[in-house]
Specification:
It is a single chain. The chain is built from six helices and seven strands. It is of the alpha/beta class. It has a five-stranded parallel β-sheet, with helices on both faces. A two-stranded antiparallel sheet has the order 4-5. The longest helix has 27 residues, at 169-195.
Length: 196
């Protein structure tokens, strides 16, 4: 069964992007995937610093998060937009787990051969779309296949009902399309690697 990791690039308890990640997790389960939903607030780590890495290696939380990436076929990131880019929390996490920490570890072990899908929620009309551009570029540059579809939820403060579902049928369909591509692409690439 395809294994997918779902999370938001926010640590805020009331984050709308956490709501989107939870919806993506439910959608992936309906599509037949095995899903792990995590909260980056549970993986606190210092700002990446090469001196820290040299002195003490990767923080334990970076190792835990990295292992989750290794153990899953793909992942969905609900990424809040910070000044037309990604959140410092998300960038820091992705940077730490890009670093090797075991003997003879393949480069970018947590990323190469993985599949990702992207989403964002923002208060404005673009729905965090601008922040997904650098995230897509970064992931593509480190060996991740990013599916073409993505979901950008505009007017995020009123985008969810009291049960956490998206109010807009259009946004719901965008999410379904994006997650379906993630499941199908992950499944196809996992099958290809097993047969080769």
């Amino acid at each position: 069964m395809t294994k997918l990791l779902m999370f938001a690039g926010s640590a805020r308890k009331a984050s709308t992007n956490k709501k989107l990640a939870a919806l993506a997790a439910g959608t992936a389960k309906e599509a037949g995937a095995e899903v792990t939903l995590i909260d980056l607030a549970d993986f606190d780590m210092p700002i990446y610093n090469g001196d820290i890495e040299e002195a003490t290696g990767l923080p334990e939380n970076a190792k835990r998060l990295k292992q989750l990436f290794v153990d899953h076929d793909g992942f969905f990131i609900a990424s809040p937009e910070y000044n037309s880019s990604i959140s410092p929390l998300l960038k820091n996490a992705l940077d730490w787990i890009s670093r090797p920490h075991t003997e003879n570890e393949p480069p970018l072990w947590a990323y190469r051969g993985k599949v990702a899908a992207l989403g964002a929620v923002a208060p404005g009309a673009l729905g965090g779309l601008r922040g997904l551009v650098p995230l897509r570029m970064m992931l593509g540059n480190i060996g991740v296949t990013v599916v073409p579809s993505q979901v950008a939820v505009s007017k995020g403060l009123s985008a969810f009902d009291e049960n956490g579902a998206l109010v807009s049928a259009m946004h719901t369909e965008m999410l379904k399309t994006t997650v379906t591509q993630l499941v199908e692409t992950s499944r196809a690439l996992a099958g290809k690697s097993q047969s080769s």
